[in-house]
Amino acid sequence: MLRYMLYDCNAEKVALQKEIEYLKNYIDLKLLKDSQGLNVKVHLDDSNNGQMIAPMLFIPFVENAFKHSKIEDLENGWITIELIIKGQSLHFIVANSRPSTSFTKDQVGGIGLQNVKRQLELLYPGKHRLQIDTEADRFSVDLVINLV
After folding, report:
1. CA triplet 70, 107, 35: central angle to 5 degrees?
2. CATH number for the domain that contains residue 56
3. DSSP 8
4. What is the tens place of the pLDDT at every residue in 30-70?
5. Which pTM was predicted?
């Protein structure tokens, strides 16, 4: 994971397959945290045909899901992550539970979503749609990128 971040992500675009592998590795690492198993559902379509993507676009959404979902609450905590590719269109969805009482896992943060929004505007102007929904018990991100 570190090698990917240090060396591969210096390029303007990376193979979508490498970005998917990074996400899988990050999720697997987080799932090692609890031997009982966490309520995390993941579907990452890796049947792409060599598409390229700007690096590290998806990871802030996944990190936030693990940070804010209180996933350790095995009864109420959950995360779903889905990446679907149809032709030249990429659809990335992350949804997670929101606990009824606020808590903070760490004091770092607050700029991840703004940075991703800015990146998308710069790298995919007019070629993306980002919808972020916050509800009382749920947070979701729905991102569509036209890869052409």
Report:
1. 35
2. 3.30.565.10
3. G
4. 998 776 778 999 999 988 778 999 999 999 999 999 999 98
5. 0.88
The pLDDT of residue 110 is 61
Where is pLDDT greater, at 66 or 1?
66
Tokens linked to 109: 């943060």
Identity of the residue numbered 105: K
How many whole angstroms separate alpha carbon 53 and alpha carbon 7? Answer: 15
Find, among 1, 2, 41, the residue nearest to 21 by Cα: 1
CB 141 within 8 A of CB 86: no
Overall number of domains in the chain: 1
Range of the structural domain that residue 105 is part of = 2-146
Token output for 44: 């990452």
Beta strands at 138-146 and 89-97: parallel, antiparallel or unpaired? antiparallel
Model confidence at 107, pLDDT cuts 50, 70, 90, reads low
Instruction: Give dist(CA 18, CA 8) in Å, integer.
Output: 9
Paired with 82 in beta bridges are: 43, 93
